Input
Amino acid sequence: MKSSLKTNEEFKPFFIDFLGVIEEQLLEIGFSYRQPKKLANAIKGLSDHFIGNEQRITPWNSKEFKAAYLAYYTPLNLWRLLHAYKTIAEDIPWQNLNKVLDFGMGSGAASFALDYMLRKTGFSAQLSGLDQSEEALGCFKEISKSQLEQLKVTQLADDFCSLTNGEFDFAIASYSLNELEVIPEELFKSKYLLIVEPSSSEESRLLMAMKESLIDRDFQILAPCSHQNPCPMLTTKKLWCHARTPALPQSQLNKIEEYLPFKNRTLTYSYLFASKQSEVATSETHYRVVSDPLKEKGKTRWNICSDKGIETLSLLHRVKLDLDLNRGDLLELDRNSIEQKKTELRIKDLNSVSIVKKDS
Output
């Protein structure tokens, strides 16, 4: 079996350059990546704040917490969003993204990642940003001076009533819905909607449950689901749907983590990508890998999801196959050539399974 830990080299130069821009913002408030211990203490304080605050609202008025968010959490969210956009890139109508909304944008990680992807396609769009914090929007404005090329900012506001652009072609809600008791209905008027949330069991399951309400609002789910049925993971407390990014590149963040009680070599997140414009061509033979490889004595297992529910796919190690399956991969299975063994679907040869789309 090949290692599942891989770095997305395509994003590395952009990511490292972005940290350089963040350094300029840190210096303005008395912090620097050259002082990793000082930043680590601020990050630990902000982490404790998030753990003890059910509303998860970032206290932007604190210099220490602002530095922590800019130096650490903004780059991590940028990495998550780059991965999310690449995962769904084939389903995004890049040429038709005329009006984009970043809901709860914070310092703008979702917009900066989207701008990078737009550079690759050659298309551009108008950007509206929404956040309750003027301080967060101020950070976005400063960073955007050097980080936005394809997105033209047309308006920044603190609520939907202040927006004048009407309906949007593409709306992003990244790590923002978990801060709200009620989700504004205006968000669901967009043609395409990407929701990214934390990967904890509780928050992932809340997002999984939102699938049905999106379908009730005439959305079709494009990813990660391979079907339009209710999420089968909601029937068990042991499983929840989330994605995993490739490994972060070596950077200034590694120095900070030497002083932190936690390390983020890879990142996880949960997401839903939905559309009112696309007709989803569902396939009864498509399955999404929804677990990391589960290695046991003599075999490796994966949890897979389809319109049939959650099932277990397995490969005995004595069956010498070079098969690299990881969380997020979309598969096509030929059940006629797969051995059904109790509760497992056992792969016998490469005719049994093919990878439709590798998760990036």
In short: The chain is about 30% helix and 20% strand. The longest strand covers residues 268-275. Residues 9-275 form a domain with the Rossmann fold fold (CATH 3.40.50.150). Helices lie at 12-28, 36-52, 63-88, 109-121, 134-147, 201-216, 252-257.
